[in-house]
């Protein structure tokens, strides 16, 4: 069985690379005992803001065998989205790099379906479920279990060779596989660049982010009016935020992605500050069809743009 497990694991990793994933690691499905107190404290402190769904399925978040019946292995995958392209107008409201192209949920889900189909064709009658940031799965914890990196002080997963501009996803399956060694080293050292750079002080301590203060939360997850306490502190970000990643020294190793679906729309990048100011709902629908930015809806995006205006004296 061990030989088969090793051979199957190698097959899966080779296919994952062929599908464009920058990393594929495998760990044994089971209870994440180290994560339990961290998650409990994070929720107790209210760092999830109004993301009430984070309070649901506590047991399933910590144990995939409760989420996927009969699960034996968690296949962790990472897909690079880094680009050196930028919005042309430096005064335009800013968009996080991950949202320049097509919605990553759709892109990765398609790849995971292809990977699962490959497993079924080459290994046998295997059951599994794909997860892309839309279910109670602790992506970073499983990536660490499979040896991909460590949690930086900004709470992002960091890899020594690739930085942190990548998406995480999982395939949880009932297949016994050969498991990788967990990461056990933290390479942030004494660096505090991310803590120092966060304009809303969302990083309350190393590896702990108060989500209710995070610009990404404010511009995407929060559906209410933006709190006045953050007026003038969002650094012109309209959708998401890259500050704590942009200042991270490990991201000097980030390389440009080669995923066609993530190529930015020229129309998007060339929009000026006045273009964003005057955007109509029709333009919004046309420009962001199939984009993660559609999550904010037109009213949410207009709210964010209005919030960036200076207070009239």
TrEMBL record:
Residue numbers binding cob(II)alamin: 61, 133, 154, 157, 168, 216, 241-242
UniProt pathway: tRNA modification; tRNA-queuosine biosynthesis
Functional description taken from the UniProt entry: Catalyzes the conversion of epoxyqueuosine (oQ) to queuosine (Q), which is a hypermodified base found in the wobble positions of tRNA(Asp), tRNA(Asn), tRNA(His) and tRNA(Tyr).
Protein's GO biological process: tRNA queuosine(34) biosynthetic process
Catalytic residues (positions): 133
Molecular function GO terms recorded: 4 iron, 4 sulfur cluster binding; cobalamin binding; epoxyqueuosine reductase activity; metal ion binding
Cellular localisation: Cytoplasm
Keyword Iron: yes
Organism: Arcticibacter pallidicorallinus
Protein family according to the UniProt entry: Belongs to the QueG family.
Superkingdom as given in the UniProt entry: Bacteria
Subunit structure: Monomer.
Protein's UniProt name: Epoxyqueuosine reductase
